[in-house]
Specification:
The protein contains nine helices and eight strands. With 262 residues, it is an alpha/beta fold. The chain has one domain: TIM Barrel (Alpha-Beta Barrel), CATH 3.20.20. An eight-stranded parallel beta sheet has the order 1-2-3-4-5-6-7-8. Strand 7, helix 7 and strand 8 form a beta-alpha-beta unit. The chain is globular and about 50 Å long. The model has no long low-confidence stretch (mean pLDDT 97).
């Protein structure tokens, strides 16, 4: 029986880190059974938006998500609506775009004022709602404000990418209607709470990702991450859920298709 194919639900392979060997990266992903990926694009990064064409040319099954990351929200402090306008332009120019993101709040690094992050986040949620698209959420040390903004905005489908919270926060995200995507962090020995989340998440709300080039899973720590390594994330999640990697691959692939309509 052929194993179900995998989907990397979040990666950054249109970034400069992959410009020199993109074709080899795509080949390794496919050879490992990774059928599809959601590639994240920064609305304000013209070079990355151009490189997305190369990604699509080499891997036609990929889909894209476009948004202003909270780290870059400060560029739109004067008029946060400009962030949504730029994202809308990026979506319009990328026919394979299927989501708005990654968007959200990051209070760990605070690269942009928090009030500006919040307004830019809210503006892009409104854009996603207007276009009928899901959102890809980045939240770090900002969960209460993230949930408050989502509650005020009203219904919108989406995913908390690279989820790192505990079961309590996972339950809040699930109750709000969101999916949770687990990255290579779940393979780290000290990620005890996240391992509990991996066992807890309902099968119809689970996704797996690499967030490459970041967060390579054990035993690949210290090297550039890439979509091929999502198979390792899938295998560890399967162990924690006391099931097979094939079952997790099938569930997460079905969830990806339902959420992103690829």
């Amino acid at each position: 029986m052929t194993a179900p194919s995998l989907v990397d639900s979040h990666c950054h392979i249109a970034g400069p880190e992959f410009a020199g060997d993109l074709e080899a990266v795509v080949t390794r992903a496919r050879d490992t059974g990774v059928r599809q990926a959601l590639v994240i694009l920064a609305s304000e990064d013209e070079a990355e938006l151009r490189r997305a064409r190369d990604v699509a040319g080499l891997w036609p099954e990929v889909r894209f998500s476009v948004g202003v990351h909270p780290h870059n929200a400060g560029r739109f402090a004067v008029n946060p609506a400009d962030a949504a306008s730029l994202t809308e332009q990026g979506l319009a120019e990328q026919p394979l775009a299927r989501a708005v993101g990654e968007i959200g709040l990051d209070y760990h690094y605070d690269h942009a004022p928090r009030h500006t992050q919040q307004r830019v986040f809210a503006e892009q949620i409104r854009l996603a709602q207007a276009r009928g698209l899901p959102i890809v959420i980045h939240t770090r040390e900002a969960e209460d404000d993230t949930f408050a903004i989502l509650s005020e905005a009203g219904p919108v489908p989406g995913v908390f990418h690279c989820f790192t919270g505990d079961v309590r926060i996972a339950r809040r995200a699930l109750d709000a209607g969101f999916h949770l995507s687990l990255s290579g962090i779940v393979t780290f020995p000290r990620a005890t709470e996240l391992k509990e989340v991996a066992a807890f998440v309902p099968g119809d709300r689970l996704l797996v990702e690499t967030d490459s080039p970041y967060l390579a899973p054990v035993p690949h720590r210290g090297v550039r991450n890439e979509p091929a390594y999502v198979s390792r994330v899938c295998a560890v999640v399967a162990e924690l859920r006391r099931t097979t990697a094939e079952a997790v691959a099938a569930e997460t692939s079905a969830n990806f298709a339902r959420l992103f309509n690829p």
